[in-house]
Design goal:
about 250 residues, 3-stranded antiparallel β-sheet, single chain, 10-stranded mixed β-sheet, alpha/beta, 13 strands
Amino acid sequence: MIKIIKNSLIFICMLLAINSYASEKQLLASPDHQQLIMVITDNWQVDHGLLYTFEKIENHWQLVSEKNPVTVGKNGLAWGVGLHHKQQGQYKKEGDGKAPAGIFTLGEAFGYLKSVNTGLPYQQMTENDYCIDVNDSPYYNQLVSKADVGAIGIKGSTEPMRRDIHVNGDIRYKKGLVVEHNRQNIAGQGSCIFMHVWKAKGIPTSGCTAMPEETITRLLAWLDATKKPLYIVLPKAQYLLKQITWSLPAI
């Protein structure tokens, strides 16, 4: 009887794994998603990688650009909360210095300028705008304005969106976009995940993906919200492991 129960549990786990693979494969194959950004790092621990972009043409992913240098979390990667199913391994936590791995949708673009060339919705940031990284805040993982939530609403946040004003001329959020990690805003599971300009060549982040300004300028101009772009971040070994099961394009 114990052996039968054990075998049944193994069979159920196998079915769940197959269903997980199928759903992610269907996601990448869906005609709804026509653009893909993919970042591959050497392993879970490194703080840098390469960015590739793809566009779907006749139901096949076609390479648009490749091997664009980026940095990720200063402590590497950990699984994030995105469109992929639950994975085995370490998951991102608030303040761990890791960027989230997995499959994610993209939100709005943002920056210091009045407007930028992009097919995403764009919002110019002001000195009142913050992203809230305080675990017990009701605004956790949300972009808010001090004008709307008051001083108490932004208390403790380390993410002013006009870093040029609040952090000695910092250019990192001059141009950026939101990675929709932890969309349910669950406290402690990671907040304020962006793609943005890097502080300087090769400098890693606290959990975002950073790149030269010219790279993100091209990226923003290429992205089109109507094509429902996806963002995938994986270490190389995981990419190779999931290439077939998730229907990932070859690089």
